[in-house]
Design goal:
The protein is of the alpha/beta class. The protein is built from nine helices and eight strands. Helices cover 41% and strands 17% of the residues.
Length: 217
């Protein structure tokens, strides 16, 4: 793999603030920092929209549990798109995945896809809570339902965040047809490089500046 410099890695980053206690001032600071660092996008909670920024704006949907009804997720995604979100990161019903009900997983994703047809749709499968077989099946369901990306984690699940193993398995499953976003617990440049090497085409980072500092100019 070609060695990436700091600016190239920054262009893979969704600069993220999803803490429930985040204020409007915190989000404005996130946007300013993201613009300064040259990230690809900022990722926030939907209640923080609309944002004033030249960067693409991503929002989460059904976050962090995924246990919202499909109708609620669809309405949330549609409202976010109306308020300027270019990307939506939705959480699947993880219990449905663990039970092997992949038709329900796909239907949930399809409802959001239909409600927000113009956004880039990333599907959070919470890979640390799934077996390898379940990860593969969720990626296949995501592709069937019209997703653009599959994403490892919310960063809020006790099972953990991204792993290079999960990213590699997700990339092998979706090939070059979908993007793969690694997020959750990526706090060092070494971890970020490992995720990129495993096949991640986007990184969800909250400590972006310190991660980028480990890459050469």
């Amino acid at each position: 793999m070609t060695k990436l410099n700091r600016a190239q890695v920054a262009q893979l980053v969704d600069h993220t603030l999803l803490k429930p206690e985040a204020t409007a001032d915190d989000v404005r600071a996130l946007v300013a920092e993201g613009e300064r660092l040259g990230v690809f996008s900022v990722c926030v909670s939907p209640s923080m929209l609309p944002l004033e920024t030249s960067l693409p704006v991503a929002v989460v949907c059904g976050f962090p549990s995924g246990k919202h009804t499909s109708a609620v997720k669809a309405a949330e995604a549609a409202e976010s798109a109306r308020l300027g979100a270019a990307e939506v990161d939705m959480v699947i019903d993880i219990g449905a995945a663990r039970a092997g009900d992949y038709a329900a997983v796909a239907a949930d994703i399809a409802a959001v896809r239909q409600a927000a047809p113009d956004v880039l749709l990333k599907v959070i499968i919470e890979s640390a809570a799934l077996t390898d077989e379940q990860i593969v099946a969720c990626c296949e369901a995501s592709e069937r339902a019209g997703a653009d990306y599959v994403k490892t984690s919310t960063g809020f699940h006790p099972a953990g965040g991204a792993s290079a193993h999960a990213v590699r398995l997700m990339r092998e499953t979706v090939g070059d047809r979908l993007g793969v976003k690694a997020s959750g617990g990526i706090r060092t440049s070494e971890a970020a490089a490992e995720m990129i090497e495993a096949g991640a085409s986007r990184l969800g980072l909250s400590g972006t500046e310190s991660v980028l500092a480990g890459f050469e100019e």
